[in-house]
Design goal:
The chain has about 120 residues and is mainly alpha-helical. About 70% of the residues lie in helices and about 5% in strands. It is built from three helices and two strands. The chain has a two-stranded antiparallel ribbon. Strand 1 and strand 2 form a beta hairpin. The mean pLDDT is about 80.
Length: about 120
């Protein structure tokens, strides 16, 4: 569990040191600064532990996304990115469909236009 801090921002802002003939009491100022240092150390340790948790979560997300990317790349690896290839692929598909229609018409004696 996180340790409670010694001061709030308002307490730091409004703190008044007692003065003596030579100015501020050095022991009081040192004690006050020591407590501020304790607070800084506590805040820094919280930041480090939170950062480690955040870093672990981010690394897990990176690994998940890498796996997802690999799956998608494998899925799309045979699809060309060149638009000219897409045209050729469409042309090839139309030729295949034409051949299938001829086979249905000639070998099976069925009119392809009547198939729904």
């Amino acid at each position: 569990m996180d340790k409670k801090l010694n001061f709030s921002s308002g307490e730091l802002l409004n703190h008044q040191f007692k003065s003596n003939v030579k100015g501020y009491d050095p022991d009081e100022v040192d004690a006050f600064l020591d407590k501020i240092i304790e607070d800084y150390r506590e805040i820094e340790s919280r930041d480090v532990s939170n950062s480690k948790g955040d870093l672990k979560a981010l690394n897990d997300e990176i690994e998940r996304l890498k796996d997802e990317l690999e799956k998608e790349q494998a899925r799309w690896k045979y699809i060309s990115k060149d638009p000219r290839d897409l045209h050729i692929d469409n042309y090839e598909l139309l030729k295949r469909i034409g051949k299938l229609e001829m086979y249905i018409k000639d070998k099976l004696n069925i009119n392809p236009d009547e198939i729904k």
